[in-house]
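Me: I'm a chemist; would you kindly supply a protein sequence with its structure tokens?

Assistant:
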Amino acid sequence: MPFTAEHDALRESIRAFVTKELRPHAEQWEHDEWFADWVFPRMGELGLLGLRYPEQYGGQGGDYFSALVLSEEMAGCGSGGVGMAVAVQTEMATPPIFKFGTEAQKQQYLVPAIAGRKVAALGITEPDAGSDVAGIRTRADRVDGGWRINGAKTFITNGVRADFIVLVCRTGAQEDGARAITLFLVDKGLPGFAVSRKLKKMGMHASDTAELSFTDVEISDGAVLGEVNAGFYHLMWELQGERLIGAAGAVAGADLCLQETLRYVKERHAFGRPIAGFQVTRHKLVDMATDIALVKSFIYQLAERWDRGDYPVAEISMAKLAAGQMATRVADGCLQLFGGMGYMDEVPVSRHYRDSRLIRIGAGTDEVMKEIIAKTALGL
């Protein structure tokens, strides 16, 4: 197993925090479609937002498996949206700052994000550009002393509560595609930066998802993250980590769904015995457990490679594709075993069913993953 005694101790600590401080609020946060503002500062206080960042920035200096432990244990809070929001902070918006940012940018954005004093978001998707990242239209044009941004983003996790956003902008002609994209660090309070609306979603209810607008937002040259016109390539690196941690979270959610279903089938009686007594039930559960174990093992293999600095694009795409499809199969199979009760909003399995669907869309759809695999692994 890839986990050490230190990882096991970390897991116990995170599990205790999740069970005691997050899980009791899950139903209320789902109902409110907003989790409490104290969550990020509290997790920063506990050192959970910088597990694999260096101590000089307030992190814990751990490895990638520390991040996996957090992702797996956050599933136990009972609200997928909370874990997703935290993953955006720790594994999506801040890694590009650490890898490509200047020391000043790390001090201004990474350090307070690790401490939970600033919430981060990642701004990629637009009304007309989702999986086609090279087609984005939000522009950053050169002006004296900096840049002026105009455009819109949508489906942005943490977009309502975020203090800053890692924003993907076009910095050249539209026909230049991926060759004219740049990343910027943009503070929420700047004139012209507005939350157009908070979006309602099928699942992940506790996380805030926003539509954002930018009207003549002026920023300095110091806001450029990485190299000008190299943003697409910076983003492609970020997306590998995002896809891998998303796959791990999907597996953890599926595992939790299975455990809840195992308890239910032992208690629920039909035709004079627990429904776990029927062979068809047992075999369905065996198939689910096997699917989960296989995908989890694959993700752990890739995590070891990612931690070594490898860049296994095709395999990460396979892991995300497999994890997403498996998670939705498991959620659907578990709901079926719950019967009519599974269709009730008050039962956690219905939440798993809704939440599981996002992984097959976010950070690249199933179809995009298949195209990547076809090109990079099959030479098609």
Summary: Residues 232-376 form a domain with the Butyryl-CoA Dehydrogenase, subunit A; domain 3 fold (CATH 1.20.140.10). The first strand starts at residue 120 and ends at 123. The chain is about 50% helix and 15% strand.
